[in-house]
Amino acid sequence: MNGRPRAYLTTPIYYASGEPHLGHAYATILTDVLARFARQNGYDVLFQTGTDEHGQKIQAEAEKRGLEPIELCDTMAEHFEAAWERLDISHDRFIRTTEEEHKAVVTAFLQRLWDRDQIYEGTYSGWYCVSDERYWTEKDIGEDKRCQICGKPVTFVEEKNYFFKMSEYQDALVRHIEENPGWIVPEVRRNEILGFLRQPLTDLSISRPKSRLSWGVTLPFDEDHVAYVWVDALINYLTGSGAIDPSAARESQGFDDVTGSWWPADLHVLGKDILTTHAVYWPTLLMGVGLPVPRRILSHGWWVVGDTKMSKSLGNVVDPLELGEKFGTDAVRWYLMREMPTGGDASYTPERFLTRYNELANVLGNLASRVTSMIVKYRDGVVPDAAGRGLDEDIRRTLSTVRARSMAAAKASWTSHARPMAMSKSASLGLRRRTPIPSRRSTKRSPRSPAA
Ligand SMILES: [Zn+2]
Question: Whole-angstrom Cα distance, residue 407 to residue 37?
Fold first, then answer.
């Protein structure tokens, strides 16, 4: 250990049944920006992203394409990795839930829950949405018996299930959220979770019978069942931290002492649609095995197109890679960071994209070219070693505010992106005011000067 501060940042792992889209790109670029900023500020950073590769949807999509599930996952993982390379993502680790190491950590995690008497066997009977892999109550689905998320018809199932005693952690979780106001940002999402927790928390079904779904991690205590895909997926954050050594004896796998590992994660970045799994299931599961919870959860909003949701079926999905090809990766990165208030929603329109794109050219680009040409013209092309005036104080203040906020409140990212534009504007204004009048007499270097 070198004594430097450390930061472990994660994106969600993306479901490998579809191609990377603007929403994935946003979350990944946001995390990338925070990771780069942490590195610049002297942190040792572990930045992890990856793909979520088990579950019914993958199994079904592979069948549809006439592939083995792993073949589909290999292809999609490659697509995601290629996308992140093109978008200049600086991740340190790309994790796949089909990796042997991850599967071993999931097994160890479930065994640990079992050993601590956190799991019991029960029967689930009720309604199930195959597409979202979740159960619904009679009340949820209404008269037409449709899934509340995807709208597809649900099916009635009655099956053996293993349940995690999530309800036992309700009070501890509420206390944690109340005592740590910045644990979930932004605040509107924190309040949403606190609202959710005012209802009694149920236990969590953590298994699916293999008779229905075989593409998953087999439970260590019942080989006829696989882990519920969400439980499997959430554990990726722990796998990446290196805290758990599944090959060690049960009592020394690392659950009692995470020293030397990257756990707990400093920041999970995720969309508001998967906030409950991250802010309720995940921390309670961690409490169940006796591990510390992540330090912060940043929940971002959704991208819509105009005023409609971006969706495959509507055919209005914006491809970030296509945009990058046309305007350059930096323009895409800038647009996404500048346009969406961190935590809120934003609407993609070509006009707004161009507005942000032109801002780079007209404000930052103009300033850069003005400064460069003035240095050439008045300082023989050498950057003068002069005492700072003008913007120095402003820049110093901005940087220190952003630094202080960056790790403590990642939501500050958006406002931080507005600052350089504001400063560039005032710098341009200052330059215009201070452009020396005598330059007009300098015929040698200024052929267009009218006062020759
Ligand atoms: Zn559904």
Answer: 9
Provide, for the chain, the percentages of residues in helix, strand and coil under a 3-state DSSP scheme, each rounded to the nearest 5: 50, 20, 35
Token duo for residue 166: 């999530």
Q: How far apart are CA 321 and CA 317, in angstroms?
A: 12
Copy the structure tokens of residue 89. 């993502």
If you search the block for the tokens 């008497």, which residue do you land on? 117
Q: What is the pLDDT of residues 209-222, one digit of tens each?
A: 998 889 999 999 99
Instruction: Measure 277 CA to ligand 1 centroid, in angstroms.
Output: 16
Q: How far is it, in rounded angstroms, from Cα 420 to Cα 203?
A: 48
Set out the domains of the chain in order of their start, with CATH numbers. Answer: 6-309 (3.40.50.620), 349-433 (no CATH)
Environment class of 322 (CB within 10 Å of its CB; exposed 0-12, middle 13-18, buried 19+): exposed
Helical segments of 274-342, H only:
275-276, 282-289, 320-327, 329-339
What pLDDT, in 10s, does the model give residues 281-296? Answer: 999 999 999 999 999 9
46, two tokens: 């572990």
Which structure tokens are listed for 326?
């046309």
Cα–Cα distance, 63 to 69 (Å, whole number): 8
Q: Are the C-beta atoms of 16 and 70 separated by less than 8 Å?
A: no
Ligand 1 midpoint to CA 296 (Å): 29
How many whole angstroms from 136 Cα to the centroid of ligand 1? Answer: 9
Backbone angles phi, psi at 109, to 5 degrees: -65, -45
Question: Ligand 1 centre from 128 Cα, in Å?
Answer: 8
